[in-house]
Amino acid sequence: MRLAVVAGGSLAGLLAARVLHEFADEIVIVEPDTLPAGPAHRAGAAHGDQFHILLGMAQHLLSHWFPTLLGDLVADGAVPLAAGADGRMFTDGRMRPPIPGDRLLPVHRPLLEWHIRRAVLALPNIRLSGDRVVGLCAFPGRVTGVRLASGEHITDTDLVVDATGRSSRLSDWLVRLDYPPPPKRRLNLDLGYATTLYHRYPGQRLDDLLAVHSARSANWAAPGVSCVAPISRDRWICTVSGYGADRPNRDPEEFTTRCLREPAAAFRALVEECVPAGPVSAYRFPHSIRRDFHELTRFPAGVVPVGDAVASFNPIYGQGVPSAALHASALGAWLRTDEDAHGYFRRVKVLVDAAWQTSVIEDFRLPHVTGQRPRGHRMLRVLSGAIDRAAMTDPVVARRFADVVNMRAHPAELRRPALLGRALLATLTPASGRG
Question: Which InterPro entries match (predicted)?
Fold first, then answer.
């Protein structure tokens, strides 16, 4: 491959470029944002100041492409956590059993993106263009380049990768080339979340923990998720969330009230022991969306999407970064074959189905959520509930549940007969019903 263009320089675009480095003589990343010289926010990542944590699969893939990355993040202040000893998950105030060996890494999104961007742009065959892709160039059957907002064109491309995120215009570009757009599925969430930094003194813990993930289920009066963790040696980051009329706002007093009513004690400790280190930032996430490119029977050669341009999920599940990394991995696997774009879409479908199922089943427990339910939703919901309850008491079920949450395993692993048998036994055990 001689020339590849990546539209979008966010994490998905950077990871796609890193993979393309092994296949293309030249890669051009086209990004309209003026990129900061250091780990600072940029306009195109509106939610960049919200809580981010690298799940197991994200750590694995990022370490493969960037062997020193995790160490570099820690050297710059990120605090690695051991599940159980340092971090715990709660559901409706009930603590989940820790998973020995699990390592978590809360990270400031600008710091993560900056480190990856520096590593990618240091590769000799990758360069950055400060522009925006506004359309495709093509002859019948194949994309041959991109049109830029500046009026320039990049032509004679072998591959264009759309990494422009949720707002991707690839569907419109395809229509202009007389190709059908992909079918689209939308799940209306009306989610809002807000984040504040707090000062942290050296070695400080909250309720004897460094990180707490507190989920309030649909059975709770105000469902949502709240998280707190150290973002550096001297800062805590705390995110709270809610749906519909319960969406959080930018009022510091309202943020404090939400922390005080959290069932996990660490949030009360945070606002009683620590001083805010900045304003409250709020972000609205109206819907999850997926574009089913795998259903298209006609699609031009020379272009594929990655990351949120394919599917964007409820962010409270932390699937964004690992999904982007998995899509980049699928891109690399596809490029090692002689398959057309449908081979890539088949690979990505497996990844999207897994993440979509994990989030959608839980989201549809919320009465206000509307959208197309997946096939077999009722049965999947019953099985998911049984697994979730069993994971509170059975260490084997808890381990497999954690593997799925960390995207190390496909959700289908939770439906294996042996595991379902353990889940049934756990739910029939009187101890499992005690809160």
Answer: FAD/NAD-bd_sf
